[in-house]
Amino acid sequence: MKKAKRILTLLMTAAMMMSMLAGCGGTSEEGDQADAGAETRDDLVVATNNASVSLIPWDNLSYFDYYVTENIYDSLMFSDATFVELEPRLAERYELSEDGLSMTLYLRSDATFHDGTPVTAEDAVFSIEQYVASPYIGTMGYVESVTALDETTVEVTFSTVNAAAPWDVANCMVLPKAAYEADPDGFRLAPVGSGPYVLTANESGSGAQLTAYEDYYRGEPSIKNVSVDIVPDLTTLDMGLQDGSIDCAIAGASSVDTLSEVDGLTLDYAPSDVLVELLMNCENEYLQDVNVRQAIAYAINTPVIADSILCGVADVNSYAPISSACTEWNAENAGTGVYDPEAARSLLEEAGYTTPIDLGTIKYYTNGTNENIAAVIQQNLADVGIQVQLEVGDTSTTVTDLYAGNYQLLLMSLAYYDSVFSARTAYDPDGLNGNNFCRYINQDLYDLFNQGLAEQDTDARQVYADEILSILAEELPGMKLCDQEVAVCYQEGLDVGELRINNRMQFFDVQWTA
Q1: Rg of the chain, C-alpha, whole Å
Q2: The dihedral of CA 469, 433, 504, 337: what is its sign?
């Protein structure tokens, strides 16, 4: 498969045009006039096939929501991944106490919300507290207190040492406490942030309009107006990229080869921690048995899913439900993904099951790719004596069922594992109505997460990570079908800067060069 990389031909094209003008007898005055008449675009159209779930950053978010929230809000500090150096944002710096049990953040004094009010320590305290309480975040239960020491200083104390604490706290986005509490429902429809863009329109089902915030403390963005469009049909999205009505989008896997050959388009790959996972409800009478979960893993032909359905924009390396892009990934401890239907049948027979077994349904949200993957899984399971029906729903309904545990098997793409320890929330015994989607309880595993996070030393943490990977590869509360690459397609002449993980674009860093 051809992977087209960023094309930098603009300066050459400009030079050729100037030479052509000179060769045709154009005077320097005519050249200056032509140059003066050229205008660089300051608008942008970004598209995604996901609908909005919420624009409140501590809620569950879709790709569409990330494009909006990453740009209308600002975080205290910024980093693309845990254990990577934090950059100043609303907080200019932070200090961690020697015992690791408190963190002090020093806010800048010139940041304002879009309604003109200043960003204060009180707003930061309120926002951090919402992250701590959110069932969707689920990683910050160790935060003991959050206090405003003065207008620009915040102190956060922890009940236990947690190596990820600075990143967890610093990446909290800050919302205006007074505006949110005055009308929470209204705020959700028309949120106010302090980021580089103001949300000027939000139309359910079609998209959002963002306008550059003139008083942004880091300076006004080059891109003045952004349309974030919802385009559910992937064929329509691909056509929009080809006809130029869409400037940037994540390409559908089946379209990657075609789009890479289109003149005027650039195809690149964002760093990715996306994994396609088959979640198993471990409260189900069959799925609570590890033998059945392992049999399901052996039965599924993951190479077909990766190569034929995802068109090679994926990698099969292990069934362990952790992204291989995470910081502490160790292939030696993560096991291997082997398609072996005979081993699946033997496991079921040895465990005393008489086939066929009726497991109920595989749920997935509306998406042509998901439908194809689910169909392969259904047939593969039938081949070893496990019967399932397919059940498709819209994104919102599927996510609601996921959190409620209203499923047996559920197909989902997940992207929150930039570190092995980020997966802690997925196996929290107290998170059955939060991010413990598989409803899998293993206190020993959860203790390993906590013990590893208490280690400030990288090598010591790795020992715990290796044991965690080994357990998950054996227990398989959910199985990774594959790691999925994020193919980003955009118009030539658009400088997107360095692509961020999973293409979580910050439009402040984007500009047109022609």
Answers
A1: 25
A2: positive
As a whole number of Å, the end-to-end CA separation of the chain is 29
Are 256 and 1 in contact by the 8 Å Cβ rule? The answer is yes
Return phi, psi of residue 469, to 5°: -60, -40
Q: Which residue has the tokens 């892009």?
A: 325
Distance (Å, whole) CA 2 – CA 95: 46
Q: What is the pLDDT of residues 66-85, one digit of tens each?
A: 999 999 999 999 998 889 89
Residue 338 has a CB neighbour count (10 Å cut-off) of 12
Say what percent of the chain tops pLDDT 70: 92
CB 326 within 8 A of CB 422: yes
Q: Tell me the residue ranges of DSSP E strands in 5-115.
A: 43-48, 77-78, 87-88, 91-96, 102-107
Q: At what angle do helices 458-475 and 290-299 cross, to 10 degrees?
A: 90
Angle 171-174-178 (CA atoms, 0-180°, nearest 5)?
Answer: 160
**pLDDT class of 280 with cuts at 50, 70, 90:** very high
Tell whether the model's pLDDT for residue 218 goes beyond 90: yes
> Could you give the angle at which helices 290-299 and 368-383 cross, rounded to 10 degrees?
110
CB 274 within 8 A of CB 369: no
CB 104 within 8 A of CB 154: yes
In terms of Cβ atoms closer than 10 Å to its own Cβ (0-12, 13-18, 19+), residue 32 is exposed
Would you place residue 416 in the very low, low, confident or very high pLDDT band (cuts 50, 70, 90)?
low
Alpha-carbon span 90 to 475, nearest angstrom: 42
Rounded CA-CA distance 468/419 in Å is: 12
Under the banding of pLDDT at 50, 70 and 90, the label for residue 24 is very low
More confidently predicted of 413 and 45: 45
Task: Read off the pTM.
Answer: 0.79
Length of the chain equals 514
Query: What's the mean pLDDT when you consider all of the chain?
Result: 89
Helix (H) or strand (E) holding 132: helix 121-133
Residue 23's pLDDT band, with cuts at 50, 70 and 90, is very low
- Give me the phi and psi of 165, to 5 degrees please: -55, -50
Task: Estimate to the nearest angstrom the gap between the alpha carbon of 121 and the chain centroid.
Answer: 28
Structure-token match 């081949």, residue found:
383
92-98 contacts, C-beta under 8 A, 24 or more apart? 94/166, 94/169, 94/170, 96/165, 96/166
Report whether 100 contacts 456 (CB < 8 A): yes
Confidence of residue 15 (pLDDT cuts 50, 70, 90): very low
User: 91-113 as b/e, with b when 16 or more CB fall inside 10 Å?
Assistant: beebebeeebbbbbbbbeeebeb
Element of type H or E holding 298: helix 290-299
CA-based nearest residue to 502, from 399, 370, 373, 414: 414
